[in-house]
Design brief:
This protein is an alpha/beta fold. It has five helices and four strands. Strands 2-1-3-4 form a four-stranded parallel β-sheet. Helix 4 packs across helix 5. The longest helix is centred in the middle third of the chain and has 17 residues.
């Protein structure tokens, strides 16, 4: 296995399955984008199942307690423009639900951090712009 990155940004998919991922496959220091917390905050409202809503609310609260999120700032906004262009040039969609993933990637790019995800194929169009690290739950 390659050396672990000292620091990395984990996307929402990693936060959701964090307890099932071997820490050796993650950076030494994990951070999240404020966009991930926004996505997690929407989660309880996106289901009518009361048990699932409670699980999602719990996950949000644990993430809020565990992470000091990176803001989506001007640097991330500029990086988003470059990512958006790369995705369009690859003939892929850059809007809708996909936009959330791209905003998270832009946060990583703007901060110069690798992006850890359970869905590395979703970021193929931007893999030359930033380091994408695919992880799998155990």
């Amino acid at each position: 296995m390659a050396d672990r990155h000292a620091r990395g940004l984990v996307d929402t998919s990693v936060v959701i399955d964090l307890e099932r991922i071997d820490p050796a496959h993650l950076p030494v220091e994990l951070t999240v984008s404020a966009v991930t917390l926004a996505e997690l905050a929407a989660g309880p409202h996106a289901t009518s199942d009361t048990d699932e809503r409670a699980r999602r609310q719990d996950r949000l609260q644990r993430a809020e307690a565990a992470f000091d999120p990176m803001p989506f700032d001007v640097t991330a906004a500029r990086a988003y423009g470059r990512i958006y262009a790369a995705v369009l040039n690859a003939g892929q969609k850059a809007r809708g639900r996909r936009a959330i993933d791209l905003l998270i990637a832009a946060t990583a790019l703007g901060a110069g951090l690798p992006l850890y995800t359970l869905n590395p194929d979703d970021f193929g169009a931007v893999a030359t712009m930033l380091t994408i690290v695919g992880v799998e739950p155990s």
